[in-house]
Amino acid sequence: MTQSNESSGQEREGSRPTPGDPLLRGADLADAFDGAARSYDRLTALNPGYHAHLRRSARRLGIPADGAGRRILDLGCGTGASTAALAATLPAAEITGVDMSAGMLRRARAAHRSPRLTFVHAPVERLAEAGVRGPFDAVLAAYLLRNVTDPDAVLATVRALLAPGGRLAVHEYTLSGRAAHRAVWTAVCKAIVLPAGTVAGDGRLYRHLRRSVTEFDTAPDLRDRLRRAGFVHVRVLPMPGWQTGIVHTVVGSRPVADAGGAR
Ligand SMILES: C[S@@+](CC[C@H](N)C(=O)[O-])C[C@H]1O[C@@H](n2cnc3c(N)ncnc32)[C@H](O)[C@@H]1O
Fold first, then answer.
1. Which atom of ligand 1 is nearest to the CA of 209?
2. Is it the case that residue 172 has pLDDT exceeding 80?
3. Domain regions of the chain by residue span
4. Four-way CATH pick for 26-253: 3.40.50.150, 3.40.50.620, 3.40.50.720, 3.40.1190.20
5. Which residues, including other chains, have CB under 8 Å from residue 38's CB and lie 6 or more apart?
6. What gap in Å lies between CA 33 and CA 107, rounded to an integer?
7. Gene3D superfamilies, alphabetically (predicted)?
8. Does residue 61 have its Cβ closer than 6 Å to ligand 1?
9. Is 161 helix (H, G, I), strand (E, B) or coil?
10. Do the Cβ atoms of 142 and 174 come closer than 8 Å?
């Protein structure tokens, strides 16, 4: 994948919210994240619970003790917030962060330096080509799955990369299915997310965020998707705060007796 430059932070198109904006995928999404990289950590810092919730999902992987001798994969690691959550929870684990946005990854590499952390620039659809090989003991996908073109294909890849019995945590904006939670999401986007994203010059990405959440699986649908992908012990776990009914961790495991080796 070619390296792309971080943008100047200038909005590259009209910043008025337009309900008809298409969802961003592939190179368009990578380009939008490249542009948003410089303001991303500032904006997430304003989101109460963002980092604590990532650490909660890291703990929900259920890896014992400090993670010594374990290999963990952070898919869609972005600027490294989810990687940092894994490193704080499992300080002795070997952690590989993968992201398709050069701009986001540049931030991650600059902010999170440790011999136990490796960052790989690749789309999750092309991990083998990028030299990312299993088995991993656990995979965290934080705010990723909603953004990919084919979530089922990504889940199949994750299952194959996990060791038998290995754990997956999908940390995601995935609505409960209750009208009240959808209304809170819509209100938060209208009052905070879209204005802040537009001021930062990244209106296109944050309009994508709003719409990608309402159009993605509900939490029960995501649980069923993991089951269809062959994960077992699948559970939906809630988050506290304003994210109640809006952000969940959906955890599951590769069956212990799964056929086929990790690739
Ligand atoms: C919302 S950010 C989340 C970053 C980080 N996990 C966190 O919790 O802060 C989503 C990240 O997923 C990456 N991403 C989206 N689709 C991807 C794909 N198909 N392959 C690799 N990375 C992808 C984006 O570039 C972006 O950095």
1. 1
2. yes
3. 26-253
4. 3.40.50.150
5. 6, 7, 9, 103, 107
6. 11
7. Vaccinia Virus protein VP39 (3.40.50.150)
8. no
9. helix
10. no
Q: Which tokens is 257 given?
A: 């007796």
Q: Counting every residue, how long is the chain?
A: 263
Euclidean distance between CA atoms 82 and 70, whole angstroms: 17
Q: What pTM, to 2 d.p., does this model score?
A: 0.92
Strands (DSSP E) along the chain, which ranges? 71-75, 94-99, 117-121, 136-142, 162-173, 232-238, 247-253
pLDDT of residue 11: 33
Q: For the chain, give the percent of residues with pLDDT over 70.
A: 90
d(CA 165, CA 71): 13
Beta bridge partners of 232: 253
Side chain identity, residue 166: G
Pairing state between β 94-99 and 71-75: parallel
**Separation between Cα atoms, residue 40 and residue 49, nearest integer Å:** 15
Q: Is 124 a pocket residue for ligand 1 (Cβ < 6 Å)?
A: yes
Largest CA distance in the chain: 53
Q: Which parts of 100-246 are beta strand (E)?
A: 117-121, 136-142, 162-173, 232-238
CA of 77 to the centre of ligand 1 (A): 6
